[in-house]
Amino acid sequence: MSTALINGVTISYSDTGGGGEPVVFSHGYLMDSAMFDPQVAALAPEYRVITWDQRGFGASHASSEFSFWDSARDVLGLLDHLGIDRAVLAGMSQGGFVSLRAALLAPERVRALVLIDSQAGQEDPALAPAYEQLDQTWREHGPAPVQDIVASIILGPAGGPVDYAPWFDKWAAADREELRLAFRCLMDRDDVTSRLGEISCPALIVHGTADAAIPVAKAEVVHAGLAGPADIVLIDGGSHAANLSHPDQVNVALLEFLRSLP
To answer: How far apart (Å, rounded) are the C-alpha atoms in residues 168 and 134?
Structure first.
């Protein structure tokens, strides 16, 4: 991984440096750039694939409050650092929140969007108290008491295709204060649903039918609201991190979409 000072924050990133069109992947909450290893392997032969750790995750750190608008400026700043004028922005869950905001901030920089198990709105009020309780337990006692619940929400059921162990190791080592800042960013985000009509670039929406965090209906709202050409692909049995639980199906959809861009 390389690093760059962007907006006063040291951002960790990986760049395959390939000659094809650049595709930037932004990860979900409690994840990091490694969650896109299956996509990097599939796309790198044709595309320049860039992954990065958002503030508070992986090797990128957070020292003060921030919003997804700040993170959107981070990804645009990363493009500047790499000398990239336009790129396809792909994001899973909160990575999609970031990518949507980047498209609103700088539409001329976004060649296309790929939104994996994401949405445009705020957290479901019915679920928010439970998430707040999980976060409080994590901060007070560490991840161990709640990590199985959290992993099942993000990665799918225990014993499924995604191995929990590597993520448990990362969560155990994570700084709890940085996670608090990232959690508040997640839970206090604004709703950009009413602004989807401002986004006219091509978009691919990929969503797992077994997503336990964001229902398919939320993805359909985004699909209906975007102004540009948008396709939606449902991954049968896919978890919230469908790109990890069902990488082959997701990679096929990604490659078909990228190859179709004019």
So the answer is: 15
